[in-house]
Design a protein that fits this description.
Blueprint lengths: L15 H11 L5 H16 L4 H14 L8 H43 L4 H9 L9 E7 L9 H14 L5 E5 L2 E7 L3 H14 L4 E4 L8 H19 L5 E3 L5 H6 L2 H12 L10 H12 L4 H7 L4 H15 L6 H16 L8
Parallel strand pairs: 4-5
Antiparallel strand pairs: 1-3, 1-4, 2-3
Length: 354
């Protein structure tokens, strides 16, 4: 706990009066040792929690009380006092900067351990309380990704944090950055916090993308929710999803589809492999199927999305049916085709061959 500023011990003024008297009498400046002693006292005062303003007031009072009667001039006394105060303030500020850096390092180490799950969970829970998190409860994580990377202290994280604190105050919310992304950790029962974070982050990142992991319990819940949010961002990039806010709970089908990578690869090759025999390769016809399924199997809308005439689009569907033997208009065959198209996008086929 910080010391009370109105209880400044005399020890932080130790040696000041003799230095003032001797230097002022001769008109000399302070020696290196005298300056170093002032800096050291300033550091000790900062470490003890004393505020600089009150310490300066104490020095000015001591200057007035101990004003040398044999000083050559007022200017020499003030010059010595200025030197002493400047050295003292330098030491005080240096100690504060060091304390801030140490606090930042401690916070960064905790966040890294929390998001990577590489620390003892019991110890991690104890450390979390220092940062306002109670890991015995459920927590959810939101991750915002912009065009550029962000670090703690940048304008964008500061703006988002200011908005969150202004709206919710201190609600056990932890806002940080990791690998260039903005990250918000909040209690799992406070979905309004993450929803507001998503809104603010989307605006602050000029249309970036935000993913929300599901609430997860226990000390390991944060890293699970964080990984879900990251996976949602990765899926959105590979599937070219255009939603600005993604909920991991809405994307659970995709991890299921890719859990057996070999089975998915077999489905893609067996179902869509024949499309490689088409003029121009498989990609244009995969894009055709993607537009068809994304538009609710409405040919006119899909044609518009691809800037094709309806006649040209229906010709492509006919070509797909001829090459694969599967009809996109048939419900059962459409499901197989759509699953294969999703698999192709997830596996980056046919760019990546397997």
């Amino acid at each position: 706990m910080a010391a009370q500023d109105d209880e400044i011990p005399e020890e932080y003024l130790a040696g000041y009066a003799p230095i003032l008297a001797d230097a002022a009498a001769t008109g000399r400046r302070l020696t290196r040792d005298e300056l170093d002693s002032r800096r050291a006292l300033g550091e000790r005062a900062a470490e003890a929690g004393h505020g600089l303003r009150t310490l300066i007031t104490a020095h000015l009072t001591a200057t007035r009380v101990n004003w040398p009667g044999d000083a050559t001039s007022a200017d020499s006394v003030l010059a010595v006092a200025t030197q002493a105060l400047d050295a003292f303030a330098e030491g005080h500020e240096r100690a504060l900067r060091l304390a801030v850096r140490q606090e930042e390092a401690t916070r960064r180490e905790f966040i890294d351990d929390l998001l990577y799950g590489r620390s003892d969970l019991g110890l991690l829970a104890e450390r979390a309380e220092r940062f306002g998190l109670r890991l015995s409860y459920e927590h959810a994580v939101a991750v915002a990704q912009g065009e550029t990377g962000y670090e703690d202290g940048d304008a964008v994280p500061r703006d988002v944090e200011r908005a969150l604190i202004g709206r919710f105050g201190d609600r056990s919310i932890l806002l940080t950055t990791k690998d260039g992304c903005l990250i918000c950790i909040a209690p799992g029962d406070q979905s309004d916090v993450l929803a507001y974070f998503a809104k603010q982050a989307y605006a602050a990142t000029d249309g970036g993308r935000v993913a929300l992991g599901r609430p997860q319990p226990g000390p390991g819940g944060v890293v699970q929710s964080y990984e879900e949010a990251l996976n949602a961002l990765d899926l959105a990039a590979r599937l070219e999803l255009d939603a600005p806010v993604l909920h991991a709970a809405d994307l659970l089908v995709y991890p299921v589809l890719t859990r057996d990578r070999q089975a998915m690869a077999d489905l893609v090759l067996n179902t869509l492999g024949p499309l490689q025999n088409a003029r121009g390769g498989a990609q244009p016809l995969i894009d055709t199927l993607t537009a068809y399924f994304d538009s609710g199997c409405v040919a006119a809308e899909a044609a518009r999305r691809l800037s094709l005439s309806v006649r040209a689009f229906t010709y492509r569907l006919s070509r797909i049916r001829s090459l694969t033997g599967a009809d996109p208009a048939d419900p059962m065959q459409r499901y197989t085709l759509q699953t294969a198209v999703i698999g192709a996008r997830l596996l980056d086929w046919p760019v990546q061959q397997f």
